[in-house]
Design brief:
It is a single-pass type II membrane protein. This is Heparan sulfate 2-O-sulfotransferase pipe. InterPro entries: Heparan_SO4_2-O-STrfase, P-loop_NTPase, Sulfotransferase. It is found in: Golgi apparatus membrane. This protein is α/β, with parallel strands linked by helices. The protein has 19 helices and five strands. The protein has helices at residues 5-15, 19-28, 37-40, 44-49, 53-59, 69-72, 93-107, 126-137, 171-181, 185-194, 203-206, 210-215, 240-243, 255-268, 278-288, 290-293, 296-307, 321-328, 332-359, and strands at 82-85, 110-113, 143-146, 163-168, 269-274. A five-stranded parallel beta sheet has the order 2-3-1-4-5. Helix 1 crosses helix 19 and helix 14 (255-268) runs parallel beside helix 19 (332-359). Mean pLDDT is 84; it is low at 23-29 and 57-65.
């Protein structure tokens, strides 16, 4: 079997820095020396851009063969000048939403977001999908529309395809962030103000901590393979937002849902950013969707102190690597999906910057 050469290189670099891999190796050989923290934090794009010997030797002379900007640019597939950001929760999407609001003033497009809802359903019935797609399609262009919802295929309803975008985050860090976000005091103050009849949760549930929840085998923190969580939506995983509304997308951490999500990213999404690779993400957004994202890095750089504090939860305590590693064992396909998105982002970045370097 053969694999795209650049994807293989990027995959190897992040695999070699994976915390789960380190935990397994330490368990097998407790005396094995750990590499310095700087090694684990090394990012592929700056490494390749700066001419780092390790990245350059890995890329070799074949580095341009699979880096075609045209093939990696799904923006060209859009049939209307409208960005649809079906945002995943707890991936820095509030920051990206504020960036888009500021960009709308700079780049002259309309900014639209879904209203705050008492019950936010992310998986919709087919008639609900069509209704939402029709509402979005009727917006004046150019526009951006933002909503927590699963990937929706507009062409299925004979409607023009928008420019799909999203952002992902390390899946374990994200689920920890979600756990404490829904328990934050200010979260319930805001919800209660918006919906006065909303009942307050039990104090015992509010005081629950993530480490105890995992180590005690609490059902909330078990993350069992193949189990579906219906109702308002399954916030344990971000791949659901890319897999779609089908029932086959609901079982947790399954190969079928993973492959559907990867297929949507590869064929439909213009850009899927990565929170941990923010600089690369902003650069790719600006290069691949310039009508909407021109100037995004300048806006972020001038307001970074404010933007990084949006929705920050100061009530979230640290979680040990031991507990994170326990959770990672049940998030194998979620981790693979995250790494897939990360590899694609870096390929998009390299396709633009290596091509420019080659031409000059």
């Amino acid at each position: 079997m053969m694999r795209d050469s650049v994807e293989r290189v990027i995959s190897w670099l992040y695999y070699a820095r994976n915390g789960y891999k380190d935990a397994i190796e330490q368990e097998e050989d407790p005396n094995k020396a750990l590499l310095p923290a700087s090694w684990n934090k090394k990012d592929f794009s700056p490494c390749a851009r700066s001419g780092g010997t390790k990245c350059q030797s890995l890329l070799g002379i074949t580095r341009m063969q699979s880096l075609n900007v045209y093939d990696l640019n799904n923006t060209r597939k859009a049939k209307m000048e409208l960005v649809f950001f079906n945002r995943v929760p707890k991936v820095g999407s509030q920051t990206f939403m504020e960036l888009l609001r500021r960009l709308s003033e700079r780049n002259n497009f309309q900014f639209n977001r879904d209203a705050v809802q008492k019950v936010e359903t992310i998986r919709l019935a087919e008639d609900q999908q069509q209704e939402m797609a029709e509402v979005i399609s009727d917006l004046p262009v150019p526009s951006v529309f933002i909503k927590h919802v699963c990937y929706t295929n507009f062409s299925k309803f004979n409607l023009p395809t928008p420019i799909y975008i999203n952002v992902v985050r390390d899946p374990v860090e994200r689920v920890i962030s979600w756990f404490y976000y829904v328990r934050a005091p200010w979260y319930f103050v805001e919800r209660k103000a918006a919906f006065p009849d909303l009942p307050l949760p039990h104090p015992g549930w509010l005081k629950k901590d993530f480490e105890t929840c995992v180590l005690s085998g609490d059902q909330e923190c078990t993350y069992t393979q193949g189990v579906s969580v219906e109702g308002i939506g399954d916030h344990r995983r971000q791949s659901l937002f890319f897999c779609g509304h089908a029932y086959e997308c609901t079982p947790f951490n399954t190969v079928g849902a993973l492959e559907r999500a990867k297929r949507a990213v590869e064929t439909q999404y213009a850009v899927v950013g990565v929170l941990e690779d923010l600089n690369t993400t902003l650069a790719v957004f600006e290069k691949y969707i310039p009508r909407f994202f021109q100037g995004v890095r300048e806006i972020y750089d001038t307001s970074a102190e404010y933007l990084t504090k949006i929705n920050k939860n100061n009530f979230k305590p640290p979680v040990s690597e031991k507990v994170k590693d326990i959770v990672r064992r049940n998030f194998t396909n979620e981790i693979e999906f995250y790494q897939f998105c990360r590899q694609r982002l870096h390929k998009q970045y390299l396709a633009v910057h290596l091509a420019q370097k080659h031409l000059t």
